[in-house]
Design brief:
Helix content is about 25%, strand content about 25%. It contains ten helices and 21 strands. Bound molecules: zinc ion. Zinc ion binds next to β5.
Amino acid sequence: MLRVKWEGTKSDWTKYNPEWLRFNCQCSQCRQPKSNQRILDVSLIPDRVALDSASLEDERIHVRWKCPEHVGYISVDRLRETADYVSQPSVCSRKTIPELCQSSVTISSETVIDYHDLVDQTARADAICLLYRMLLQNGSAIISEMPTVSGTVKTFVETVLQLPVQRTIYGEVFDVISTPDPINVAYSDAELKPHIDLAYYESPPGLQLLHSLRFDDMVKGGESVLVDGFFAAEELRRVRPEYFRLLSTVPVTFEKIHYDRKWPVHMTYRRPHIAVNGAQQITALFWAPQFEGPLFAPLEQMSAYYEAYKTFSKLIDTCSSRREFRLAPGQMIIFNNRRMLHGRKAFNDGGEGSRHFQGCYVNIDEFKSQALVTLMQHNKYPSVLPHVGNQSC
Ligand SMILES: [Zn+2]
């Protein structure tokens, strides 16, 4: 057993298991230096290995194992980063998003980022860091002064966020505009209750961008609605813990079965509405009433499930995090589709008015990676990482 006492902390010694240390050796025999990928065949490590000695030098713990013999090292950073998990697996070091929202680092959700700053050589670094911090912490951000040109949303993802667009069954870029025979209820003038998109995918899109190209004054209604789903779920846990437990354990069916379209689709996916980790923190949310299929659950559980469902639905409608706004032409909303539920109020085009948004998606893990890389490059790496809703524990 290796024991480490961390300077400046009052906590106990962190203990490291010898096999854990052997599996995580970072020497060039165990990990390929450039790629940092493990090349050691860990299946060849005996069930019990023994430590011979360990010493600290150059920010590395140099370790000597015996039976079988090996000399390697593990960086202090890696030991520190994993200290909490190794010694106290039930405690997750990350704060939950509602905790983050209440902390002093919160950026006002009213903050609007000017598109010109994001494409300006000198203002760009600060603006892009602000955008990524808002998306990580608040779950959404609004960009103003965008050109009202079709296709700008895709160019924005590729050149400003420097990420690929996530292609789905709706293509790379989709037009949210009222049509007579919509392939999706979004492409009509009906009300859309708050939901996440593509809950029937194994990995629903991470970021969603909606760019307002046209929104005529004569169009009545059509305001966008955004609710922090994680916040609402925490509220459910607080007021009705037994309902929270049901919604995090009973699998429900999400489906998109539609043969009468250019690309016929038949997608079904079953899972609970709320995903939690071992410490019962929320790691993902799946809420899409418009795309629910039949519930397959034990008969004796059904009534309780529906009670829990309706309670959560009402909590979402009355949640204090709920925001309503009219997305003016040239404005774009970007939000984390895995955390923020989005919707729209019904609208009436007043005869000749038009409401036309263009949207696209970004994969959740690619977004998270790019946010961290960008913040790291500008020395603005967050001290606590929020859950982004990708189910990572
Ligand atoms: Zn090694």
